Amino acid sequence: MTTMPPCADTPLAREQAGLDACVHCGFCLQACPTYLALEDENDSPRGRIVLMRALADGTLPPSDADLREHIDRCLGCRACETACPSGVPYGHLLEATRATLRGGQAPTVAARALLRVFSHRPLMRAAMALARLLAATPIPTLLMKLPGRIGFGMAMLAATEFPLERAKYRAEGNGENGSAALLLGCVMEGLFTDTNRATERVLIRNGYEMVAAPSQGCCGALHAHAGDLDAARRLARRNIEAFERSGARYVVTNAAGCGAMMKEYDHLLSGDAEWSERARAVSSRVRDVSELLAAVGPQSGGVLPFTVAYDAPCHLQHAQRVTTAPIAVLEAIPGIQLVPLDESDQCCGSAGIYNLIEPETSNAVLARKLDRIVASHASLVATGNPGCLMQIGAGLLRSDMQARVVHPIDLLDASYAAD
Amino acid sequence: MLDASVVDRLRSIVGDRYVLVRDAELLAYQSDGLPGYHKRPSVAVFPGSRDETIDVVRALAAVGAPFVSRGAGTGLSGGALADDVVLLGLHRLKGILDMDIARMRATVEPGVVNATLNKRLGPHGVFYAPDPSSEAACTIGGNVAENSGGPHCLKYGVTLNHVLAATVLLPDGEVLELGDRDGGMAGYDLLGAFVGSEGCFGVALDVTVRLTRRPESVRTALADFTSVADAARATSAIVASGVVPAALEFMDNGTIRVVEESIFAAGYPADAAAILLIEVDGSAEGADADMELVRGLCVECGARTVRVAANEAERTRLWQGRKKAFGAMGRLAPNLAVQDAVIPRTQLTQVLAQLHAIADSHGVTVCNVFHAGDGNLHPNISYADGDADQARRVHEAMGAMMKACVDAGGSITGEHGVGLDKLQYMPMLFDEPTLAAMCDLRSAFDPERRANPGKVVPIHSCREWLAAPSLRSASSGDGDAR
Description:
The structure holds two protein chains of two kinds.
Chain A: H1 16-20, H2 33-38, H3 45-56, H4 65-72, H5 90-101, H6 109-119, H7 121-135, H8 139-143, H9 148-158, E1 179-182, H10 186-191, H11 193-205, E2 209-211, H12 221-226, H13 229-246, E3 250-253, H14 256-263, H15 265-268, H16 276-283, E4 286-288, H17 289-296, E5 307-310, H18 314-319, H19 325-331, E6 337-339, H20 354-357, H21 359-376, E7 380-382, H22 386-398, E8 404-406, H23 408-417
Parallel strand pairs in A: 1-2, 1-3, 3-4, 5-6, 5-7, 7-8
Chain B: H1 4-14, E1 19-20, H2 23-26, E2 43-45, H3 50-62, E3 67-70, E4 86-89, E5 96-100, E6 105-108, H4 114-121, E7 126-127, H5 140-146, H6 153-156, E8 163-169, E9 175-179, H7 190-194, E10 203-210, E11 212-213, E12 217-225, H8 228-240, E13 247-252, H9 253-261, E14 274-282, H10 284-300, E15 303-308, H11 312-323, E16 335-338, E17 341-342, H12 348-361, E18 366-371, E19 376-377, E20 379-383, H13 388-407, H14 426-429, H15 432-445, H16 463-467, H17 469-474
Parallel strand pairs in B: 2-4, 3-4
Antiparallel strand pairs in B: 1-2, 5-6, 6-10, 7-11, 8-9, 8-10, 12-14, 12-15, 13-14, 13-18, 16-20, 17-19, 18-20
Helix pairs in contact in B: 1-3, 8-10, 8-12, 12-13
């Protein structure tokens, strides 16, 4: 193999220390959903790091088709990070590799178009309004069994329907635990609007004062995962400004993917002299809603008679390393029977826009998750991320399973409503 | 390079997706768990079933092509490296074929991951005892090939003691049954020869392993010492006392520090010169009594503290730190020379001092983490890529350490196998006639020496090999001159 001179200043070259941390022990293999599904080390963390090194040292050119295929196929779930004794920052390596491969362009036209929509607020609002309109008609339910992406997309929309009755109650609290500004999120505010309101209610009831951060927008996570780090940085700067202006003590998220991104604004902007300190300050204030609730209790409410399995969103479990707080939230609900879900720490195959780019692998990963859900006998699967809610929800609907998905916060909110 | 028609034949057996031929795709398979060695396979092929495996091996036999079997690629002696020959990945054969709890045995395919088997056995109150530190990733097939050990082999024995039978595919494509599922024995123990043959005798298509009932009680203690010598003396004292701990592990300060920086931080005292992780098991009273004795001996030998894990979560945490220690070495440098030697336990203090002296004189840093109870040392030297002078010093230090262990009456491997990495040390331990006898044994299984060529026994020891130049040229990757 001919070796070309390594590219001196690429996003990947700047992560060399992270590449060096891997000693090829292989402890990550069994944690990787794509390795388990595809059975090739090129689709494992260890194998992808070998490919990344080859890109960094010039052994492989950015145009190499195999290199691109296996890097594209990574879910970015970061389950390898919580298996890695050497602390390889795999998520950062992946983003830097993708940024190096295509100069920050997402791999497909559809993905590029979608990312553009996410980064423009008016476009985003219009798209979400259309999706909401469609979701309110019987069309998604009618078409959700169609084969392929159209059917799956319809099932994802159908899965946004709330599985319980939503009773109204008035949330009251003394605000003694500090102020919090909610990152509304693109998909959360667009398709899970009620969950956002429920998040505000349960936080108020648990002693947090909710304040607005009106000029906020997309967190940039999808752009960063696709390697469009420049777009991610633009979006990050906008949010840093918005949340600074809110004056809130905490930035709270109810979408694991957005929370993980915001907690890493410091890394994203570490090379930006003007912004790095501000990014660090905002990142240190970011909390998942479950963290804020677990820190103070949370208060218990009325009885809910459900059998619930908790499925950990990867970007909560592996990226943010928040593992027990969501369980504490569910345990605070009287009447709920929490049943174990085997491999609850493994990806469902949603992974941002992955199910759009790699439908085949996404489905293989989802199938394994659905099998585990059947075995758990749960009637509700609780998970705190919109992508996971829609992916698992769609899988359940399309395979005629009885179980439904729900955000843990919606359950706590329903419990308070039943109080 | 393999003939294109053979590659087509492999594709027709396992499907296009599972035959890798391009440079970029083969990069990931150039190393196993020991970084620093890179050998490019000519082709990598991953059969998905027993029948596909048989067909692949027969297709290779038909053209006389050498091959190297590989499980999860977590081996630490370079044993699964294929130097321009076919790499046969067995990781897709991951069926647990039978769990017969009443008869205390399970039959599994070679690609079943050690920890996955134990996860499935857990609810039945039984376990498969050999527990290499890589248990979360390594396969039973690989464990059989290497006769793997692990912390708990001190009391429970190594892989060999837990394999009842195996269906073996010889390199010429013949399938035979070795051993006896019911534990009977008649004739020569060919299974005993197969276990630990490092992929040189053929491929295990399935393995029947012995299951062990979970002990009623387990007590795990962390003893910390301000001097390495004290920890070594405590080890000797515990062994001499007659207590057989389930495990007795040693970690030095360098190892403690990398573990404590990692996600598997176990609460080891960062200022300790060494710690011992000691586990005893049995009946509740027996375990308590043993632990009291162990605690007393540790304190007598100068332990600063001896802390017994209060619950299962704490126990798991103490163990996770130990088991992930080797992987955590990446925090020091990108490359790692992992060694594996056995010494008489009475020589622990003296040999550890020697190893440090060797490291100092070669200007390298050694971290020790090992199975102290059975004298199985693992000196690890971390080093940077691309520094030729340092790489040479590491290499020389490793050779000197091996020699020190052999001179102390020990051996060059306890559980990692010889593979490629320790081929050079074999003549330190065995004379020419003994090595030639090993070659003769291999000939009974693989007369053409096509399975894992160039490993374990230096080729110049093999009389038939020297007498058969045609075989030598058939396998360009096989030779002792490199």
